[in-house]
Write a structure and sequence with these properties.
By secondary structure, the chain is mostly helical. It has two domains: 1-129, no CATH class; 145-215, no CATH class. It is 74% helix and 0% strand. It has eleven helices and no strands.
Length: 215
């Protein structure tokens, strides 16, 4: 979960959240508040009195509000810093200026902080747990099926043209769209993982139920 959140934030905001090592204090506070807020929001499904608690600002809803404030404060601060940074970069060709998603939105003159906060959090919510759970099941299945693991490893080595004893940095440098397009077996293994252990099973079940009703 921490590794996925780090990756998602790098893509969305262009910053290193450093959740795995925990050296970024503000990032650690955001991560804890974000996870707590997610859990408390899910608790509403079984708490019939959550609207009353929210109105009175007591119990779980009071805790949820505090954690949302921490999340908002962190995200708004990053958005402000990103806007200031991009305003100071006058050269469009400067590397790194438009690599993250937030910068792309700012390029389109989207400067409403609340809208940008919603965009950031939507991407985080959509990408964090789904990716983390899928990767967890994927590695679990690889451990259960070493023959599949061996085939995937051979395909990656063949596609990237690296040796089996290459460093992680050397492998990462060779992974791009061209090499990924050659990894058909890896793609199939990930697809099978999603079929066996869907990242959002409740949504899939609801869709299937509605589909059956149509007939």
């Amino acid at each position: 979960m921490k590794a996925t959140l780090d990756s998602v934030f790098k893509v969305i905001m262009g910053i290193d959240l450093d959740g795995l090592s925990g050296t970024y204090e503000e990032g650690a506070r955001f991560t804890a508040a974000f996870d707590t807020a997610n859990g408390l929001t899910s608790f509403r499904f079984v708490d019939f009195f959550w609207k009353i608690k929210r109105f009175l600002n007591i119990g779980s809803e009071a805790e949820l509000r505090k954690n949302i404030e921490v999340v908002d404060e962190f995200v708004y601060k990053l958005i402000k810093s990103k806007i200031e940074l991009l305003n100071n970069l006058h050269d469009d060709s400067q590397p790194g200026k438009k690599e993250d998603i937030l910068s792309r939105f700012l390029e389109l003159k989207e400067t409403d902080p609340k809208y940008l906060r919603d965009v950031v959090l939507n991407f985080v919510i959509a990408g964090k747990d789904t990716t983390a759970t899928t990767l967890s099941w994927f590695f679990y299945l690889l451990c259960k099926h070493p023959d599949i693991q061996e085939k995937i490893a051979k395909e990656i080595i063949q596609a990237t043209q690296v040796s089996s004893n290459s460093s992680f940095e050397e492998l990462a440098a060779k992974v791009n769209e061209e090499t990924l397009d050659k990894m058909h077996y890896l793609h199939a293994a990930l697809s099978e993982t999603l079929r066996l252990y869907p990242a959002v099973p409740v949504v899939r079940t609801c869709i299937e139920v509605e589909h059956e009703k149509c007939y």
